[in-house]
Amino acid sequence: MKKDIHPKYFEKTRVRCSCGAVFEVGSTRENMEVEICSRCHPFYTGKERSSGQVGRVQKFKQRMAKKK
User: Fold this and answer.
1) Which of helix, strand or coil describes residue 11?
2) Measured between alpha carbons, how far is residue 41 from residues 2, 17, 68 in Å?
3) Contacts of 55 by beta carbon, 8 Å cutoff, 6+ apart
């Protein structure tokens, strides 16, 4: 690598999530704050929320059912 052109790399960057989780990763930033992490993301926790909105395909099927 060329000298003096790369950003400083921090081996132990502290990452803080809005859920309260704190963990360390390697990064070019010294401290980071994130809104969502693997502890609180619905995909990882298995607690998916339903949005209550009907998808496009379901709306189409409902319209076709009304016509018949």
Assistant:
1) strand
2) 39, 11, 41
3) none
Three-state secondary-structure class, residue 68: coil
How far CA 55 is from CA of 24, 32, 47, 63, in Å, comes to: 38, 35, 20, 13
Question: Which residue do the tokens 């607690």 mark?
Answer: 47
Read off the pLDDT of residues 16-65 as tens digits, 9 standing for 90 and up.
998 999 999 999 999 999 998 888 887 777 776 655 566 888 888 888 89
Q: Which fold would CATH assign to domain 1-47?
A: Rhinovirus 14, subunit 4 (4.10.80)
DSSP state letters, 20-44 = S-EEEEEESSSEEEES--TTT-HHH
What's CA 48's distance to the chain center, in Å? 13
